[in-house]
Design goal:
The protein has 14 helices and five strands. It is of the alpha/beta class and 325 residues long.
Length: 325
């Protein structure tokens, strides 16, 4: 029988293109997918090593390894039969293009064509791709395979500053890219940490740690506590953090290597939050003048570092205008 026969015209049948995600464990398919597979007259797959095939066969589904042309597939559906095509990773573009061309001729009674996603990517699924790519780069790239935490530290600082710049510039495309660069630093360091002979940890350990911390510090979301304002949320966070850290000073945990204005503002914030009224050192000099300005900015809810950057950009623009003039 061919696609132009009377039988094919009377009952063109149905083609189901079954797609799956490699980010979901093989065999975890949706109920509509299992139903379509069990009801199909034939199940075809071009890739004999497709990860789903062992699970389909275990479920009693006979799968033929075949790469039919569009015409052959239409013929296979003649008489009202349903043929399921288990798509490979590329999604069978040659087959779908062929079916589209065949339908465009208007001379063939085309089967009903259904695209059936059998498994879906969950939010965050692409992070699995990133971990796999990073693992291969670490193993095979001459540069990446030799990097250390210490050697990468400067890149983390650079990427963080570039992220801040993208936020301040309001460039959405740049923001997305810079977030990716910062995420790369996290995954890269976690991959390096797996190789530590004494205290190894993985990106899963990193993620598990921050998940546990977020849940613990948000009892108003995951527990019985209540918080209706941002101020109450912050109070919850600080109380929980204080119990966790058991610090003897509010200054503990403040990185002294950060930019000076940010450091001064952070110290002022910690002191104010703790209810400490600490007078500024009675010493004259530019450094102490800047300290006073940073403390004042923090008390007024202004980020002194961001304010100075904004002023510096305005100064840069003035310099450029003067150069052009």
């Amino acid at each position: 029988m061919n696609a132009n026969s009377p039988e094919a015209t009377a009952a063109p049948g149905r083609i189901v293109l079954l797609t799956t995600s490699h980010r979901v464990a093989p065999g975890l398919l949706s109920w509509p997918a299992w139903r379509a597979l069990h009801a199909a007259g034939r199940v075809l797959c071009a890739d004999g090593a497709h990860p789903q095939l062992p699970y389909l066969r275990e479920a009693g589904i006979s799968v033929e390894e075949a790469s039919p042309t569009a015409e052959e597939l239409v013929d296979a559906c003649a008489g009202g039969r349903t043929v399921v095509v288990v798509a490979t990773g590329e999604g069978e573009p040659a087959l779908t293009d062929g079916l589209a061309r065949l339908a465009g001729t208007g001379r063939v009674a085309m089967p009903e064509l259904e695209l059936l996603p059998a498994s879906y990517d969950l939010p965050g699924a692409r992070l699995l791709d990133l971990v796999q790519v990073m693992d291969r780069i670490r193993a095979e790239c001459p540069w990446s395979s030799r990097q250390t935490h210490q050697g990468l530290a400067k890149y983390g600082i650079e990427e963080a500053y570039e992220l801040v710049e993208a936020i301040e510039e309001g460039d959405r495309d740049e923001l997305r890219e810079e977030l990716g660069d910062v995420l790369l630093q996290v995954v890269f360091h976690a991959r390096i940490a797996e190789e530590d002979p004494e205290a190894p940890f993985s990106v899963d350990d990193v993620a598990a740690g921050i998940v546990a911390k977020l849940i613990h510090r948000h009892p108003h979301v995951f527990g019985d506590a209540t918080a209706t304002t941002p101020e109450e949320v912050k109070a919850h966070w600080l109380r929980t953090k204080a119990v966790e850290k058991q610090r003897s000073s509010v200054t503990e945990g403040i990185p002294l290597g950060q930019p000076g204005l940010a450091l001064a503002a952070k110290l002022a914030s910690r002191a104010r939050t703790a209810g400490l009224d600490i007078p500024l050192p009675p010493v004259e000099g530019i450094g102490y003048d800047l300290l006073a300005l940073a403390v004042r900015a923090e008390s007024e809810g202004v980020d002194p570092e961001a304010a100075l950057r904004a002023a510096a950009r305005a100064y840069r623009d003035a310099i450029r205008e003067a150069e052009q003039g």
